[in-house]
Amino acid sequence: MAELMSRQNGEDVVVQPPLSQAVGYVVVVVIGLVIAAVMVFVTKVLKRTVGEDNRKTEMFMTANRSVTPGLTTSAVVSSWLWSTAMLGSTLVGYVNGVSGPFWFAAGCSPMIVFFAVLGISCKRKIPEAHTLLEIVRIRYGTTAHIVYMFLCLVNNIIAVANMLLGASSAISAMTGMHIIAATFLLPVGVAVYTFVGGIKATFLTDYMHTFTILIILCYFSVKAFTLEEVGSVSNLYELLKAASARHPVAGNEDGSYLTMTSKGGILFGIIHIAANFGLVIMDTSFFIKAFSASPKAVVPGYVIGGIAYFAIPWAMGTLASSVVLGLENNPIFPTYPRRMTSSEISGGLVLPYFAITIAGKGGAAGILLITFMAVTSTLSAQVIAVSSIISFDMYRTYFNKNATDKDVIRWSHFGVIFFALFSSAFSTMLHYVGVDLGWTLYMLGVLTCPGIFPTTFTILWRRQSRAAAIISPLLGMVTGIAVWLGSAYALYGTVSIASTGATVPCVWGTVASAISPLPYSVIITLFKPEYFDWAEFRKERLAFEVDDTQSTNERRTDIEINNEDVSESQSLLKRWGRIAAIWALATFLGHWVLWPLPMYASKYVFGKGFFAAWLVISIIWLWGTLFIVGFYPIIDGRQQIVDVWKAVRQGGHRKRTKDSTADESSSGAVTPTVIQGDKK
């Protein structure tokens, strides 16, 4: 970011939007409402055909804990397919060269896979939970519950602001639509379908949006090479090599864009991996999706999703930033004859300018669509997360402990509307004080990281004391903010938007915020050690009863697990936990250590053949992600699709066979899975 700040030249040259404002409003408002209407219709069809009633809390919030591995994988990819993932990866690629997109991808996949460890542990110890905060409250009490509620809400707010700032800027650049209008209108459709459909609507919309986004990205990956000025990977290499000669990068080996030996790149990698661990672990939407998945879907969904996701920022960030850097001095580039200004770069416009360059208005329309779909899809997860905090952790806990299904659903609806409005207003405030995508991308870890270790210990380490859980994240946040602001002042002589968005202060602040709670927690725990019995989680009833009209497949999932021998259930979930831990360690070592760090140390500048392999492998991986996200959920969920189709053909209602009726009458209402905790 220091490089970006120094490149602001004060030029008041504006690139004319390739699309009209009318197109922007049609996409943001009309298409948003059409998607919402479709999801409302699908929700009603599922209710009539397979008994998925979103008036019941367990269905609205956790989809009766029966989501399949395929849909879970799609939702996991979607959870990280922020508009920031595409806009931000191209931004750091433009600034740092090929190292930027790689570090962006490597800063996302390890913690997604690691979350499988937390998810399966929660399934084993407290399967009736709806939110992370319920776990905190049961283990540590009211004070800790309020502290973590604050940490989670800060995480959700800063995450949504990051998304909306980048998306609104890109939409405004593509259509001329007022940036504030985009900021307020983007959440409208999200609020509608989340209001009606709950978490299942979020899963289904995640699938539809993510599949569409990947189709467009794969199209771009081919279209770029049909442009005469690019032509081939070899020619793109020459263009990037020439760009390195024109504008050498300070801190890169030989000033080249074609090297992993990049000071700016690795500093961003450190910021990004720390910040993203915070964003994942303190994001209640990830816990909700883990609770919504069936026990057998958690680990496959998060492991496959995390590895598949890696290709998106790596491939598109590398390709788009390379094309922009290579063609910036060409008359076909939108800003020619000047370079992009720092405000354009920090606003996330590298990817939109790439799309305009290779595909004109069609490219602009593609960026408009994927930006809209990415931000609405991830917004829906954030909205349902905050809604769950308001309904379960505020209303049900402190205002009405005997709340009924109807009460909780009503407050969930209030939460959806409130957060949609609040997030838009908060993002607008940030815009008017001069904050943009680049600033939030670099500094957000300072605020999201303090809860990483205390939260992980809450789920995995029975000895963390109540005092440690409460004090360590607050001390961590204070430490991180102090180091961040102090570094900005020491290095630049002032505390301002520019200085606090620079790379080095953000690195120091993020690392301090992430790491300091670890010794704080351990030291405080040693002064007054405690020992928590996981069985305590079972003493409080959290789940509502599941309606006995739920689908046969869903009932079968619950019945199978409830009827299994407890020891066999524990053995199965522990085995999944070991698998998750192995994959988490392997992903971190592979994506963040064994692959990039030797390349950084070698000071290697890519040759033509190596660059070709680098780019081609990333694009093949991207296409593989398309097939995983697009077709795995269909194959995996084919039985429910068949059930719905048969029910529709029979007049819109699920046919009850004699066997199934007897089965249901004998079993009665099936409650969510309850598995004995580990008493060791």
From TrEMBL:
<dbReference type="InterPro" id="IPR031155">
    <property type="entry name" value="DUR"/>
</dbReference>
<feature type="transmembrane region" description="Helical">
    <location>
        <begin position="411"/>
        <end position="433"/>
    </location>
</feature>
<feature type="transmembrane region" description="Helical">
    <location>
        <begin position="367"/>
        <end position="390"/>
    </location>
</feature>
<feature type="transmembrane region" description="Helical">
    <location>
        <begin position="439"/>
        <end position="461"/>
    </location>
</feature>
<feature type="transmembrane region" description="Helical">
    <location>
        <begin position="177"/>
        <end position="196"/>
    </location>
</feature>
<feature type="region of interest" description="Disordered">
    <location>
        <begin position="655"/>
        <end position="680"/>
    </location>
</feature>
<feature type="transmembrane region" description="Helical">
    <location>
        <begin position="300"/>
        <end position="327"/>
    </location>
</feature>
<feature type="transmembrane region" description="Helical">
    <location>
        <begin position="468"/>
        <end position="492"/>
    </location>
</feature>
<keyword id="KW-0812">Transmembrane</keyword>
<feature type="compositionally biased region" description="Polar residues">
    <location>
        <begin position="663"/>
        <end position="674"/>
    </location>
</feature>
<dbReference type="InterPro" id="IPR001734">
    <property type="entry name" value="Na/solute_symporter"/>
</dbReference>
<feature type="transmembrane region" description="Helical">
    <location>
        <begin position="266"/>
        <end position="288"/>
    </location>
</feature>
<keyword id="KW-1133">Transmembrane helix</keyword>
<feature type="transmembrane region" description="Helical">
    <location>
        <begin position="609"/>
        <end position="632"/>
    </location>
</feature>
<feature type="transmembrane region" description="Helical">
    <location>
        <begin position="22"/>
        <end position="42"/>
    </location>
</feature>
<feature type="transmembrane region" description="Helical">
    <location>
        <begin position="579"/>
        <end position="597"/>
    </location>
</feature>
<dbReference type="InterPro" id="IPR038377">
    <property type="entry name" value="Na/Glc_symporter_sf"/>
</dbReference>
<feature type="transmembrane region" description="Helical">
    <location>
        <begin position="507"/>
        <end position="527"/>
    </location>
</feature>
<dbReference type="Pfam" id="PF00474">
    <property type="entry name" value="SSF"/>
</dbReference>
<feature type="transmembrane region" description="Helical">
    <location>
        <begin position="102"/>
        <end position="122"/>
    </location>
</feature>
<feature type="transmembrane region" description="Helical">
    <location>
        <begin position="63"/>
        <end position="82"/>
    </location>
</feature>
<protein>
    <recommendedName>
        <fullName>Urea active transporter</fullName>
    </recommendedName>
</protein>
<comment type="similarity">
    <text>Belongs to the sodium:solute symporter (SSF) (TC 2.A.21) family.</text>
</comment>
<dbReference type="GO" id="GO:0015204">
    <property type="term" value="F:urea transmembrane transporter activity"/>
</dbReference>
<feature type="transmembrane region" description="Helical">
    <location>
        <begin position="143"/>
        <end position="165"/>
    </location>
</feature>
<keyword id="KW-0472">Membrane</keyword>
<dbReference type="GO" id="GO:0005886">
    <property type="term" value="C:plasma membrane"/>
</dbReference>
